[in-house]
Design the sequence.
């Protein structure tokens, strides 16, 4: 067992972990932050995306010990303290970018990372970026529309596929 310390959603977090403990399990089981989902355990679905030192990471593909000393942001840490949603979260709501909601935390975290790196992506760039996230409900159209809207682009001319 080893002690790990990191900052999670702006607050100090620590816990004792086995060497094989995945970051997603530490976040969910030790810290009780269950917004980060476990979908596949093979880093294929993207439901577990969090930000580690500002970069999108699939938390099921990183050991908790590897996050020692880092700043981790989960979906619970995205909204402002008063509950105000980020533009991405608001756009997912406004453009119905979710259905069952299982993939939504990972999609939002990925979208936030995309817009940080590329503030005005094309529709094709959004679709390419989301290849690491699986949604079995929406068909992605409204997710893409929400991300484009969050970037400040006019989405009225985007037709359903």
Sequence:
């Amino acid at each position: 067992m080893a002690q790990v310390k990191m900052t999670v959603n702006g607050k100090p977090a620590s816990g004792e972990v086995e060497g094989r403990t995945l970051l997603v399990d530490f976040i969910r089981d030790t810290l009780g932050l269950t917004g980060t989902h476990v979908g596949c355990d093979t880093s294929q679905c993207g439901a577990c995306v969090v930000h580690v030192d500002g970069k999108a990471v699939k938390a099921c593909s990183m050991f908790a010990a590897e996050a020692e000393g880092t700043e981790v942001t989960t979906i619970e840490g995205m909204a402002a303290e008063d509950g105000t949603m980020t533009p991405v979260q608001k756009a997912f709501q406004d453009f119905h970018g979710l259905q069952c909601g299982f993939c939504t935390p990972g999609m939002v975290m990925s979208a936030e990372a995309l817009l940080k790196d590329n503030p005005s992506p094309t529709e094709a760039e959004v679709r390419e970026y989301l290849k690491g996230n699986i949604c079995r409900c929406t068909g992605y159209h409204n997710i893409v529309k929400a991300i484009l809207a969050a970037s400040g682009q006019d989405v009225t001319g985007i037709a359903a596929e």
User: Anything to note?
Assistant: The chain has a mean pLDDT of 95.
